[in-house]
Target: Glycosyltransferase
Amino acid sequence: MPDSTVPDAMPTDNLAKWIDWLPQHHEATLASRPDIMILAARYGDGHLRAAKAIGLKVKLTHPALSLGILDYYKFVNSQLDNVIRWAYLSSVRFAPSLWKWFYTATQKIDSESTTQQFLNRIGIESFYRAIAPKPPKVIVSTYPTAAGVVSTLKRQGRLSALNYVVMTDYSIHSQWIHRHVDLYFVGGDDMKEALIERGVDSKRVVVSGIPVDSRFQEPVNEDNVRRQLGIGSEPILLFMGGSYMPIQEFSHILSQLDQVTVPHATVVVAGREENRRQVALEYQKGAQHPMVVLGYVNNVHELMGVSSILISKAGGLTTTEALCRGVPMLIYRPIPGQEDANAAYVVKHGAGFLAKDQNDVTEMVTHLLTHPWELKAMARQARLLGHPDAADVIAAKIYEGVSAAEAHAQ
Model:
């Protein structure tokens, strides 16, 4: 893409590429002075995926609106960003109990506390200088730090933009809750009730669902997908191990799935880590059941569309994608804190199981495959929770916000 402008009538495929382009070209996106700015972060890819889903829907439904998508941490001192990123990734991968302690300790801290005030000012001056020449009319945050910064600028009277917050997990944490937020978009009724209990006006909370790629609304040609995978009519187990799962456990889960005696096929998505893919390929050679090993894929919507069970941790976006597709989840090793809450939400509403340990996996998968009526009931329940139109709902509210801001300025 030569610049950050986009024609009003761009084919959807090209528009999606332009949406991908925006956060990778920070300065060019800023220079376009968009009326709508979506702020995400690279701490896991869920926040950015949600931002892109919203951005794409905004441009598809209201192409004349100017849009920018940015990684908020580009405004943060690079050394501080590296320290924060290292601390987060190291704790969730190697010291999950430490991350759980931090998450729990900060879950209900007061918005005026020293800790919260510090977090609400990370990168604030750099961000303000960048947008001050022509502030956006609406700022949408899919990452809590950005939401806190925008709220602080509004409290200080330096910014009048509407502050919209899109929560990307099924849990309530103080990092998301700020006084100067105009609208919260949440995944379900449970979250709305929890926000109200924390003092948020119900009129400021929209149960939209968590936004995912629009392809999760589209039908899937199961015969074509199975043919491409080389899989017959047997039930498909979709195993998405995730980069946070230790490689030894990744290997052990492969073994547990292959020990299920009920006929099935396993599709393994190893992601971008080549060592993980090689482990799966090696295991595939002696597998008793058909096994397909994939690296990074861009057709998860199709893979979920043909699968009977998803075995995965409980990231907010992956969980929502499974719910939208009506795929029952067997959740294994959720990241302590937010993913524990996501897992609890799925289990509470009858859309999945939580494995206590590795050995639970074989038993639970066997149970589900031999009780197809229970599997179907879980699939129906998942679809009830999914909200595949979440991005549509949020895009409509953004348009209303921009229109109101323009009318007020006249």
Observations:
- The chain has two domains: 12-212+389-409, 215-386.
- Residues 34 and 66 are 5 Å apart (CA to CA).
- The chain has 18 helices and twelve strands.
- Residues 12-212+389-409 form a domain with the Rossmann fold fold (CATH 3.40.50.2000).
